[in-house]
């Protein structure tokens, strides 16, 4: 997405898994930015994009490697501020006449502390102001800068990074060896705030502005065509549907697909909610037999996702034909979905897992995708929902994946396991609401495990399923920490599930963060 109405910051992606967090920090400052992979950024792109500032991301490569990622040389001649991060610092030094070396005991991974090396630097306003005169940062590098480029000076050091913070103030080039975008660098947001201020950004990119621009883009893309929207009732698809309806009105038909993998009473709630609040054409498609039939006997999580994704396409094609044909399929795809499934815009980041709604449409459908939320994070979608006037019951819902309970049922899916899972999940969410914790938690659910365990109930032996409770806190779903329930809450919840849900005799709590785990189990 690109718009001429705002000053634009370009993030050149060299393959870091946390590049998107740079965009998050900037968007929190109401700065319009786009991430583009290094291999697609050339002189013509720079001229067309016309960035007001540029950030080089980190990345896993070495500047010594054959075909190492490099920015176009002309980026240094545009007269705009540049900030290099980790590999971005190294590639900046390499391109401008400095030196980068490997190893020699200077690799750093994890928490480190940077101390100031010389006079104050404007980009460091708000840093080094404690009694300890140091800042915690997050390092993740093997190679290191051994000689800075001409014109640069050192402004901060760490035990293993003598050039942790460098700058050429005359050209407004700044470079740091650490990652200020991650929360392990507590004062990192201030560094980005200072950088965009020095670059002259007005901070005028808001959800109100996004709404206007998105409506205009939808109208331009769709024209007089007809659109069907995949509506799940979650935040993403609900916001997408209302936004698209604002843009094209009756040209939109929503299709709610019940694939037999929804939570307890969810289909009735979603359909009722939309028909009560919005005058949208809505088809309730019960395709549970189709989906569950195709998933029978399937255990591999990627195979599950691909089957579900393919069936969604078939179902939407079917209902598009029933309404007389559609030219577009609308989805609530978000930026994290794209990042985890495929590299954004063809970039170098590593694929984590496929998503059912990412990857395009088969040619036979002769339809184009409309994805107005594709470059937004979850909290931005919620902000857009408030801008559109959606009720809190829509906006505040925990995320629910498109594949539904299929990815909360590791191993083979059966109707019996799904029924048990629905009941356990309903008890768990009821507990969370009763204790007033729902809005503190980003996402909570139960996963039914592919094992049976021995138990004792009513003086008799049981051999039933175990389940895992999952609850996380997050801002954007890209990183997450487990929610610190009290032991009393966990004990009470486990007792309720075992007493109220036939088929479960053991309850566990998943305390894995993301990374290394993902939020969902599959």
**Share of residues in helices:** 25-40%
Q: Tell how many strands the DSSP assignment holds.
A: 20
Shape: globular
Q: Within the largest sheet, what's the order of strands?
A: 2-1-3-4-11-10-9-6-7
Radius of gyration: 25 Å
Largest sheet report: 9 strands, mixed
Mean pLDDT: 87
Taken as a percent bin, the fraction of beta residues is: 15-25%
| Poorly predicted runs of 5 or more residues | 342-359
Question: What structural class is derived from the secondary structure elements?
Answer: alpha/beta
Question: What does this protein look like?
Answer:
- The chain is α/β, with parallel strands linked by helices and 522 residues long.
- Helices cover 32% and strands 23% of the residues.
- It contains 14 helices and 20 strands.
- Strands 2-1-3-4-11-10-9-6-7 form a nine-stranded mixed beta sheet, with helices on both faces.
- α5 (207-222) crosses α6 (235-248), α6 packs across α11 and α8 runs antiparallel to α9.
- It is globular and about 75 Å long.
- 44% of the residues are buried.
């Amino acid at each position: 997405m690109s718009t001429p109405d705002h000053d634009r910051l370009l993030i050149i992606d060299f393959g870091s898994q946390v590049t998107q967090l740079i965009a998050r920090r900037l968007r929190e400052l109401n700065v319009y930015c786009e991430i583009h992979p290094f291999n697609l950024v050339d002189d013509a792109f720079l001229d067309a994009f016309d960035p007001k500032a540029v950030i080089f991301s980190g990345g896993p490569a070495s500047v010594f490697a054959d075909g190492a990622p490099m920015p176009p040389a002309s980026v240094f001649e545009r007269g705009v501020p540049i900030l290099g991060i980790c590999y971005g610092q190294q590639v900046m030094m390499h391109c401008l006449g400095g030196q980068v070396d490997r190893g020699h005991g200077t690799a750093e991974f994890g928490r480190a502390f940077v101390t100031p090396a010389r006079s104050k630097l404007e980009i460091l306003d708000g840093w080094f102001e404690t009694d300890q005169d140091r800042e915690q940062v997050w390092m993740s590098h093997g190679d290191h800068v051994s000689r800075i480029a001409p014109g640069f000076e050192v402004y901060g050091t760490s035990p293993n990074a003598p050039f942790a913070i460098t700058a050429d103030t005359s050209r407004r080039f700044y470079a740091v060896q650490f990652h200020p975008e991650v929360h392990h660098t507590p004062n990192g947001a201030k560094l980005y705030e200072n950088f965009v201020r020095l670059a002259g950004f007005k901070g005028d990119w808001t959800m109100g502005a996004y709404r206007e621009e998105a409506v205009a883009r939808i109208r331009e893309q769709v024209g007089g065509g007809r659109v069907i929207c995949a509506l799940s009732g979650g935040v993403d698809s609900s916001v997408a549907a209302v936004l698209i309806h604002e843009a094209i009105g009756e040209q939109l038909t929503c299709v709610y697909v019940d694939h037999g993998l929804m939570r307890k009473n969810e289909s009735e709630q979603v359909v009722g909610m939309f028909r009560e609040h919005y005058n949208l054409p809505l088809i309730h498609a019960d395709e549970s037999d189709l989906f569950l039939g195709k998933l029978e006997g399937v255990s591999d999580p990627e195979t599950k996702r691909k089957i579900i994704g393919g069936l969604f396409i078939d179902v939407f094609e079917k209902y598009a034909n029933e309404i007389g044909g559609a030219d577009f399929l609308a989805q609530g795809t978000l930026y994290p979905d794209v990042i985890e499934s495929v590299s954004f815009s063809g970039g170098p980041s590593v694929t984590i897992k496929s998503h059912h709604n990412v990857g395009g449409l088969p040619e036979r459908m002769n339809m184009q995708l409309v994805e107005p939320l594709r470059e937004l994070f979850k909290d931005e979608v919620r902000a857009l929902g408030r801008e559109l006037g959606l009720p809190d019951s829509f906006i505040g819902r925990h995320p629910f994946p498109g594949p539904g309970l299929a990815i909360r049922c590791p191993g083979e899916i059966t109707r019996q396991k799904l029924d048990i899972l629905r009941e356990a999940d309903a008890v768990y969410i009821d507990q969370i609401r009763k204790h007033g914790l729902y809005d503190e938690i980003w996402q909570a659910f139960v996963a039914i495990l592919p094992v049976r365990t021995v138990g004792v109930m009513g003086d008799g032996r049981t051999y039933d399923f175990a389940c895992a409770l999952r609850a996380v806190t997050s801002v954007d779903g890209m990183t997450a920490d487990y929610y610190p329930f009290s032991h009393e809450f966990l004990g009470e919840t486990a007792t309720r599930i075992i007493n109220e849900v036939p088929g479960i005799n053991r309850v566990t709590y998943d305390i894995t963060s993301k990374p290394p785990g993902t939020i969902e189990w599959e």
